[in-house]
Design goal:
Its EC number is 5.3.1.24. Pathway: Amino-acid biosynthesis; L-tryptophan biosynthesis; L-tryptophan from chorismate: step 3/5. InterPro entries: Aldolase_TIM (IPR013785), PRAI_dom (IPR001240), RibuloseP-bd_barrel (IPR011060), TrpF_fam (IPR044643). This protein is α/β, with parallel strands linked by helices. It is 35% helix and 21% strand. It has helices at residues 13-22, 41-51, 66-76, 89-99, 118-122, 173-180, 200-222, and strands at 4-8, 26-30, 56-61, 80-83, 103-109, 127-132, 162-165, 184-187, 192-194, 197-198. Bound molecules: the ligand O=C(O)c1ccccc1NCC(=O)[C@H](O)[C@H](O)COP(=O)(O)O. The ligand O=C(O)c1ccccc1NCC(=O)[C@H](O)[C@H](O)COP(=O)(O)O is lined by residues 8-9, 28, 30, 32, 35, 37, 60, 62, 84, 131, 140-145, 165-168, 186-190.
């Protein structure tokens, strides 16, 4: 299974183009006003048209209501909804039924106890995104550029595809993958020169590092 690379929080045509040309498998668009990466529906529509099937479009929301999701569906037509709030298992089921799109549930991780929610979500979600749990005073539940202890996932037995995120960058993603055995990596802050300002060279470096890590793990597996 090829490693999935997601570049999240894209908000300009130029950096989206760079991520697509560099080979991102998923491009994430944030619809959460407190985020420095938040997109208007108009910009989401424009950027969505630019993707043209070259990557999966991920709409990132936080405890959004149906009206908000309807608007995002109309503007972006996402391939996946990434639910990054406190959405219940029942809410995941509702969203899947209403929109007919896969859902990726973000699971915040700080301690082993945070993994207790997995069986419920894993029964409904299509994939899981493990992210660092945000501090209590944070203005948003993700995109904070801080890692969690990847060893908490060392003995994970999850039948669902999962990604690792939270404070990743080109220089630590290989270790994150080695420890977590995740099938994908996701990054936002680690490819930015400032909050919300994506850096093309950092995007390229991150994707290059992810592909290099994938190749070396494939070489090890055939030995
Ligand atoms: O990116 C945001 O601003 C954001 C806002 C609210 C909820 C989630 C958010 N990001 C979720 C992502 O998928 C990020 O890529 C993930 O949290 C990793 O972020 P980072 O640690 O900055 O790489």
């Amino acid at each position: 299974m090829s490693l999935l690379v997601k570049i999240c929080g894209l908000s300009t045509r130029e950096t989206l183009q760079m991520a697509l040309e560099a080979g991102a498998d998923m491009v994430g668009f944030v619809f959460f006003p407190p985020s420095p990466r938040h997109l208007s529906l108009e910009l989401g529509r424009d950027l969505g048209r630019q993707v043209k099937g070259r990557a999966l479009k991920v709409a990132l929301t936080v405890d959004a209501d149906d009206a908000t999701l309807d608007n995002i569906m109309d503007a972006l037509s996402p391939d996946i909804f990434q639910l990054h709030g406190k959405e219940s298992v029942a809410r995941l089921r509702d969203i899947k039924q209403r929109f007919g799109r896969p859902v990726m549930k973000a699971v915040p991780v700080a301690t082993a106890a945070d993994l207790a929610v997995l069986p419920g979500y894993a029964a409904i979600a299509d994939r899981i995104l493990f992210d660092a749990r945000a501090p209590k005073d944070a203005t948003r539940p993700g995109g904070l550029g801080e890692p969690f202890d990847w060893h908490l996932l060392e003995n994970l037995d999850l039948k669902l595809p999962y990604m690792v995120s939270g404070g990743l960058h080109a220089d630590n993603l290989a270790e994150a993958l080695r420890v977590t055995r995740a099938g994908g990596v996701d990054v936002s802050s680690g490819v930015e020169s400032a909050p919300g300002v994506k850096d093309p060279e950092m995007i390229k470096a991150f994707i290059r590092a992810a592909r290099a890590s994938q190749e070396s793990s494939q070489e090890l597996s055939v030995r």
